[in-house]
Amino acid sequence: xxxxxxxxxxxxxxxxxxxxxxxxxxxxxxxxxxxxxxxxxxxxxxxxxxxxxxxxxxxxxxxxxxxxxxxxxxxxxxxxxxxxxxxxxxxxxxxxxxxxxxxxxxxxxxxxxxxxxxxxxxxxxxxxxxxxxxxxxxxxxxxxxxxxxxxxxxxxxxxxxxxxxxxxxxxxxxxxxxxxxxxxxxxxxxxxxxxxxxxxxxxxx
Length: 205
Hints:
The protein has 5 helices and 12 strands. By secondary structure, it is of the alpha+beta class. The radius of gyration is 16 Å and the shape is globular.
């Protein structure tokens, strides 16, 4: 978490096939993954637990006839890649009010029968990052999931996100922050993510 209450909650890694992507990350890097909850709209996902409570979300195409599946198929037509990033906050109401954006409440049924409740804001501004606040303390949950993943490489924190937004655009959206952002010329959106591990940094682009 940063000095200003913002932190990278997770990065969404768009993939053509969730199971194949999970096998590739295991074979190439030693990153394990765990099943996610239930998604709607024709997409499927698995989660790569990183330093709790941060994670990498593998979001894949399940049904191209549905809205999310069709959009995702187009987004990863050129190959698996980071497609979005998500910034956590501990004060969603203040953050959203300052930006004049609505807060949306959501939930995802979990495999253990529980429901994960959360709030988001700013998803309509894709590919800028959107904001999220979870309604429960998730650290113990992600500590368990980290162990379930059985990583070979002992992943730690997200070391950076590489983005194409002009610095001034991202600064106006995020406000004052201390997030590990690298700027790269080119089209708007996330380009890459770095992950610390016991064997060195993994970079996914």
